[in-house]
Amino acid sequence: MKKLLTATAALGLMAGAGAAEEIKIGVVAAFTGPLESLAPPIAAGHELALQEASESSMFLEGTTIAPVRGDSTCVDAAAATAAVERLVTSDRVSGILGPMCSGATGAVVTNVAVPNGIVTISPSATSPALSTIEDNGLFFRTAPSDARQGEVMADIILDRGIQEVAVTYTNNDYGKGLSDSFASSFEQKGGTVTLVAAHEDGKADYSAEVGALASAGGDALVVVGYVDQGGSGMVQAALDTGAFDVFVFTDGMVGDQLVENFGSDIDGSFGQNPAAPGEGRDMFTEMAAEAGFDGSSAFSAEAYDAGALMVLAMQAAGSTDPQVYKDKVMEVANAPGEAIMPGEIGKALEILANGGDVDYQGASAIELIGPGESGGSYREVEIEGGELQVVGFR
User: Fold this and answer.
1) Domains of the chain, start order
2) Could you say which of 41, 69, 87, 217 has the lowest number of CB atoms within 10 Å?
3) Is 292 exposed, middle or buried (0-12, 13-18, 19+ CB in 10 A)?
């Protein structure tokens, strides 16, 4: 890999609050690849927060923000690294919002963020391995670790009276980490996992994989995968062969595309994705609708919160230099301070400019813990009448 610019060289022209009239922030999402249907509302969530801060005229004495997009592709770590390299070295961004997927995120943090001292906040990278990645205090995520999702999924399945399941997972960091977390938790709670087997994305035929899982047995098939790729391929193969008729879906599968793909054929199936109930979620959903995108889409709210935390940290630090504002991210995300909801970024910027404290709660009731990640609550969903319905929160 070519030697990248250091953070000091790349960002020197914007190190002080008053020195820049405009800054750039990278918006990195999987615009192509196995989660491309989720990328537009995630990117829109990031950009809505940046627009709100920019238009408030309260951000760093009137500094404006220009988002610059990059395609992380989700599963191609080299492409993700190259995209973020360009944002850092050519566009000279002050921070990175994204990437979406765990493998791409790990590659970006290791190969770009750390060498260049760039703050990176992902809304949706959930691999447990990211909790211990060497990040020099530069990496944060507004989504919880899949160590938590595995426990929640185990509880949801057992609460529905299902004691025995088979598991298929997409063969990457996300799939392996979440399937391991789930299997361990499910068995500790008294359930039985008949078989855990990987699937590759991009195949035309998944009948062999489904056949092995069907032979092992189980009352449901847990699908740890991507709705635009192998996860849906596995579901279709299972339906075609009659191997399974009840499916449990993880966050990479939960979205409008799932019911567009299968409709009522998967009635009775269920799953979960990170989301918090309450006023903040409702406020953001209304704001998103006014802006022309679906705020209920998976991780869109977390994306808005990621953007908000980045600009608030800059304001609290009085600087767009990542080496300075990285130390303020946890501070603006947590108590003490005045509670800040969606649509109140301008208010928060004013409080910070006047020397006050904020406790950003936002669209996903954000609270950062430990290594800079969300503690996490989850939305439980089920498919009935060919529609995705929210049935509760955990």
Assistant:
1) 7-144+278-369 (3.40.50.2300), 146-273 (3.40.50.2300)
2) 217
3) exposed
